Amino acid sequence: MRISYEWLKSMVDVPEDPSDLVAEFVRTGTEVEAVEKVGADLTNVVTAQVVSKKPHPDSDHMWLCQVSVGDRNVDADGNPVPLQIVCGAQNFEEGDHIVTAMIGAVLPGDFKIKKSKLRGVESCGMNCSARELGLGDDHDGIIILPKDAPVGMDYTDYLGMSDTVIDCEITPNRPDCLSMTGMAVEVAAMYDEDTHIELPSVKSEQGPDAHDLVDVTIDDPELCQRYTARVVRNVKIGPSPEWLARRVVAAGSRPINNVVDVTNYVMFLTGQPLHAFDLGKLTERDGCRHIVVRAAADGEKLETLDGVERTLTPDMAVITDDGKTPVALAGVMGGTNSEIDENTVDVLLESATFSSGHVSRTSRNLDLMSEASIRYERQVDGANCANVAEIAAALFEECCGAEVCPGIVDVYPVVVPAPVIDFRPARARMLCGAQIPDEFMVARLSRLGCSIERVDDEHLTVTAPTNRPDLTREVDLIEEVCRLWGEGDIEPTLPAARNHAGGLTVEQKRIRLIGQTLRACGLSETSTYCFADPNDLVSLGITEEGRGIPVKIINPLVADQSEMRRSMLPGLVRSVAYNLDHGVPNVALYEIGRVFFGHESKSQPDEPTYVCGVLVGKRADDAWNSKFPDYDFFDAKGAVEQLLSALRLTKVRFKVADAQRYPWLQPGRAAEVLSQGEVLGWVGNIHPASLQKVGVDVPVVAFELSVEALLRLAVRELPYVDVPTLPGVTHDLAIVVDESVTYEQLVQRIGSAGGKLLADVRLFDVYRDPVRVGKGKKSMAFSLTYRAADRTLTSEEVEKAHEKLVNKVLRATGGKVRS
C-alpha cells in the first residue's frame, strides 16, 4: 500500500518528518518496504514562457521557439537567456506559459532530453504534453499554464507534487489498511489523534430514478454478498483535475481519464473497488438494463481490459448483460465490451462485494492480478458499498460535469452483522504482561472504530467495525491493545514456576528419536505447507475414509492452497517432483507434522500428528567401484522397522495392504503396519497411475505412520533377558505351499506349533519351479533354532519337537516337506 504523505496529512495530524511516522509504523506492526520522494522523476522540468514563435525554416509544421526559463538558464555574465527549442505542437502562441524539459531531464519511459538537431536546427529542450510527463493520456498538444504561472519554477513544486510516499507491506488480515482512510484511522489510533476526513456528497440529483434504468439479480449469494448500482448521465470525458491525477499517481496508478481516475481514486481512498460500465453498451430491454451476477459457464469467453481473451470456468463469477454476455470478471477486471471510452455519455457505477475465495482462485488461475482483486482477496466491507457509491457519484458530478440520477439499486442478500465481543481489561493486562490503564484501551480501541459500552467494573462490550474482519474474539482486541501500547515497552519477566527443572518430556524425546532414527536411515527432514489443494487426495487416488471433512481456509492467499491438508503425502510428492525437475534424481525425505480432519458436528478439527517419508532413486550416486540399487519397498520397510525398533514397539506385523482400502499404493508392493493388533499406518510403492497424474514418472516408495499411535504403544523399558549361555539346535525346513500362502501365515503357524522351545525363525530361501516344485506352488525354506533356557536339549527332544511342528504346519497350510 502506497501512502501519500500529503494526502494523509489532509485526513489526520502526522509528524512533520515522515521518518517519525515510519518508525511508529514499524513499532506497531506495519512493515515499511520503501520511502520515496514523488516528483524526483521530473528533475529539470520547469515552468516556462514562450518569448517568440517562428516557423521552422525547413519544415511546414514545426516551430522555432525562444523559451524563457528564468534564471534556470543564464549566459556567461549570469543574465537569464531563453532556450532555443524546436516544437511540433500547434496549440500555443507567443506569451503562453508552458512546461519545458531542459537538457538532462529524464522523462517517464527513460526518455532522456539531450541537445539535438531537428531538420538542421539546434534544439535545447522539449516543450511537454501531459502524456510525455506521465500525468495523463492527453497528447494533442503541450500543457498550457495560467497566465500568472511563475517562470523557472520546478513543475513538481508548482503542482504541489513534491510528496513523500511510504510503501507499506500490509498483512492479509488487515484489508482496512489497503485504503487511505483506513491508514488515517490506524495513524489516529497510533497517536491518539482525531481524524478530519472530508468526503464529498452529491449536490443535486436529477433525471429518472436509477431503479427505472437498471435492475440487478444475484444468482448465487455465495459469489456476491452485495451489489449496488448508481447511474450518472451526460459525463464529459476528459483529463482529470490536477489534484485528482496527482493523488492517483502517488497511489501507484496512471491517470487515464476523469471517469476511470475517479473510480481508482475512490478505491485508494476507501478500499472499496469500483467499476464503471458504459451504460450505452449494455442491452436495453423494456427501457431498462439488466445486470445479472452469476457463475461463469465452462469455456465461456471474455476479453478483459488488458486486451486478452480469457477462457472461464464455473468457479469464476461474472457480471453479465441481461444474464447472457459477460461484461466483467467479478472482483478482478472489466471487459472491453463495456469499457469507458471517449464516446461514453452515461455510466453505470458498480460498488459490490464478492467472495474472497472465488476472486483469489480466479486471479491465480488466470494469472490476472489487479488492485481490485488484491482487496477482494482480503475481504471488502460490504456494509460500506452504498456510501462509497455516493462518494464516487459526487466526484463524477464535480470532475466530469455529470448528472447524478436519484436512487441506488441495492441488492443485499448476505448481511454480515458487526461482531459484539465481551472484553475484560484485566485479562488484557494479564496476557500482555503490562499494567495498561483501562483509559488507554478504551481510547485506542475507539480510535480504531470500535463502539464500547461498560457493563461493569470488569467487563466491556465492544462492537468491532465491519471493515475489520480480523476482530472477532477478545484476544484479537487484546492484540490491538498490545501492539498500540508497544511490545517494546513491556518489561520482560520470567514465567512463574515452583522449582521446575527444565528438560524435555518423554513425548518430546520420543518425537526427536523418530527424527534421529530416520536421519540415520539416510532420510533428510523437510517441511511442506499445511495448506493444500482441494484436489490433492483425488490426484493421488487417496481415499477420504477416516480423514474427516476438509477444513476450508476463509481467505486463501493462493488458489491451490484453499484448505488444510489431510495427508502429508501430496506435499512430499510435490517436493519429489520439484527435485526431479531440477536435476536431483536421488531423494529421501521425511516430515513430522499435523494433518487436519474436520467434523460437521465439531467446531474444531482433529489435528493428529503423522510422520511421512518418500524414497526415490538410489541411496547414493554410482561410483567406479560400486553400484547402488534403486530404492524399493524393502528400503522403506527397513526404515519403518528401524523406527519401530528404536521406539521398542512390540508384536509388530506387516500385513498385505488391501487394494480397495489403499488404492494409491501398488498392489503386491504395499503393507499395513501393525503393533499389538493396532494399525499404525502403511508402507509401499505409490501406484504408477497416481504418480503419472502429478507428473512423476519414476517409482516412489513411501510410508505414513500415526505419531500418536507410535508414542502410545512405545515401551520405555524392555524387560531384561539374559544372554543365552546354552547352545541351540538348528534345523532347516523347506515347505512347498500354494502361491496364496504368505510368509506371514507360515511364520505364525510355525511360531504357534513350535512352543516354548522354538527360539528363532528365519526365512532364507524362496524357490519356484513349475517342474520341480509344481505349477502355482513355491518352496519356502526356514532356519529354525531350538533352545531351552534351563538345560541343554537332547537330540531326542529336538527331533520330537521338530516333528510335531512339521506335522502341525503341514496340516494347517496344506503343504508338504520338500525333499
Automatic annotation (TrEMBL):
<feature type="domain" description="B5">
    <location>
        <begin position="416"/>
        <end position="492"/>
    </location>
</feature>
<dbReference type="GO" id="GO:0004826">
    <property type="term" value="F:phenylalanine-tRNA ligase activity"/>
</dbReference>
<keyword id="KW-0460">Magnesium</keyword>
<keyword id="KW-0067">ATP-binding</keyword>
<dbReference type="InterPro" id="IPR005147">
    <property type="entry name" value="tRNA_synthase_B5-dom"/>
</dbReference>
<dbReference type="InterPro" id="IPR020825">
    <property type="entry name" value="Phe-tRNA_synthase-like_B3/B4"/>
</dbReference>
<feature type="binding site">
    <location>
        <position position="470"/>
    </location>
    <ligand>
        <name>Mg(2+)</name>
    </ligand>
</feature>
<keyword id="KW-0547">Nucleotide-binding</keyword>
<dbReference type="InterPro" id="IPR045864">
    <property type="entry name" value="aa-tRNA-synth_II/BPL/LPL"/>
</dbReference>
<dbReference type="InterPro" id="IPR012340">
    <property type="entry name" value="NA-bd_OB-fold"/>
</dbReference>
<dbReference type="InterPro" id="IPR009061">
    <property type="entry name" value="DNA-bd_dom_put_sf"/>
</dbReference>
<keyword id="KW-0820">tRNA-binding</keyword>
<comment type="similarity">
    <text>Belongs to the phenylalanyl-tRNA synthetase beta subunit family. Type 1 subfamily.</text>
</comment>
<keyword id="KW-0963">Cytoplasm</keyword>
<dbReference type="Pfam" id="PF17759">
    <property type="entry name" value="tRNA_synthFbeta"/>
</dbReference>
<dbReference type="InterPro" id="IPR045060">
    <property type="entry name" value="Phe-tRNA-ligase_IIc_bsu"/>
</dbReference>
<dbReference type="InterPro" id="IPR036690">
    <property type="entry name" value="Fdx_antiC-bd_sf"/>
</dbReference>
<keyword id="KW-0030">Aminoacyl-tRNA synthetase</keyword>
<dbReference type="InterPro" id="IPR002547">
    <property type="entry name" value="tRNA-bd_dom"/>
</dbReference>
<dbReference type="InterPro" id="IPR033714">
    <property type="entry name" value="tRNA_bind_bactPheRS"/>
</dbReference>
<keyword id="KW-0479">Metal-binding</keyword>
<dbReference type="InterPro" id="IPR004532">
    <property type="entry name" value="Phe-tRNA-ligase_IIc_bsu_bact"/>
</dbReference>
<dbReference type="Pfam" id="PF03484">
    <property type="entry name" value="B5"/>
</dbReference>
<feature type="domain" description="TRNA-binding">
    <location>
        <begin position="39"/>
        <end position="156"/>
    </location>
</feature>
<feature type="domain" description="FDX-ACB">
    <location>
        <begin position="724"/>
        <end position="818"/>
    </location>
</feature>
<dbReference type="InterPro" id="IPR041616">
    <property type="entry name" value="PheRS_beta_core"/>
</dbReference>
<feature type="binding site">
    <location>
        <position position="480"/>
    </location>
    <ligand>
        <name>Mg(2+)</name>
    </ligand>
</feature>
<dbReference type="Pfam" id="PF01588">
    <property type="entry name" value="tRNA_bind"/>
</dbReference>
<dbReference type="InterPro" id="IPR005121">
    <property type="entry name" value="Fdx_antiC-bd"/>
</dbReference>
<dbReference type="InterPro" id="IPR005146">
    <property type="entry name" value="B3/B4_tRNA-bd"/>
</dbReference>
<feature type="binding site">
    <location>
        <position position="476"/>
    </location>
    <ligand>
        <name>Mg(2+)</name>
    </ligand>
</feature>
<protein>
    <recommendedName>
        <fullName>Phenylalanine--tRNA ligase beta subunit</fullName>
        <ecNumber>6.1.1.20</ecNumber>
    </recommendedName>
</protein>
<keyword id="KW-0436">Ligase</keyword>
<comment type="subunit">
    <text>Tetramer of two alpha and two beta subunits.</text>
</comment>
<keyword id="KW-0694">RNA-binding</keyword>
<dbReference type="Pfam" id="PF03483">
    <property type="entry name" value="B3_4"/>
</dbReference>
<keyword id="KW-0648">Protein biosynthesis</keyword>
<dbReference type="Pfam" id="PF03147">
    <property type="entry name" value="FDX-ACB"/>
</dbReference>
<feature type="binding site">
    <location>
        <position position="479"/>
    </location>
    <ligand>
        <name>Mg(2+)</name>
    </ligand>
</feature>
